[in-house]
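Chain and conformation:
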Amino acid sequence: MTKFEVPARGDVSENNQTIFDTLEKQVGMVPNLYATMALSNNALGDYLAFSSRKSSLSKKEQEIVSLAVSTANACTYCQAAHTAIGKMNGFSDEEILGFRKGVSGDERHHALAQISKALVLHRGIIDEAVKNQFFDAGFTQENLVDVIFQVGDKTITNYLYGAFNFPIDFPLAPALQEEVSH
């Protein structure tokens, strides 16, 4: 098995070193996910620009998508990171576990988690009933485009973790009681 070392500041380009410095100031650390992106001279800056784009989805809604997608893609790193971020956004442990399973007691949150999970599990082909549930919950076509962009954002990070399997530098997300169906 190939052993992967997370690059340190001195191992990356000057441009990425500047980004590392900014992350240290803003977040207090450079998450291993971002450090791994810095193996590319351009990927880290490109990703940060993409992930900070404007969206019709609220920060909470973006977290619901991130939790559902990261679980559907079996990314333990992103499940851990987004569990922590979800808590910072005011979600309870129970809500977070539900979003990871693709469910919620709130109709709007449930529809968002369901469509996010479906996009991953069915490679973008969404069942009409899932789409109708999404639109009936008050979401718009603009929201659907932004959900797809958020799914793409998380898929990038999920795949990066899957390929490199770097150490998780967030508290681990609790195990789900039941498996997410594929």
